[in-house]
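Hey, resending since the last one bounced:
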Amino acid sequence: MIPELLRQRMVFCDDGSRADMDYLADGLRMAVTWLPKGRTDILKARGTGDEFRNGRLRAVIAGGSIAFTRADGSVRVCHPLKEGD
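The structure tokens again:
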């Protein structure tokens, strides 16, 4: 069970993939589920404004977009879906 949600956001990525991002209640953890049937990664930030990360994935939010960098160096840039999309 995922702890209480602070915010949920759907994103679409430049490579055509999509993800469901859930910001968890403390604001320092994020659950990212790759759609339609991908794994869920739990990422943690050390403090407000820091990048989110775990052992396999790093996420940096800037300018309304989010860049996910995998341990192998591959990058996936994603953007929030607008309301009604």
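DSSP finds no helices and eight strands in the chain.

Sorry for the duplicate.
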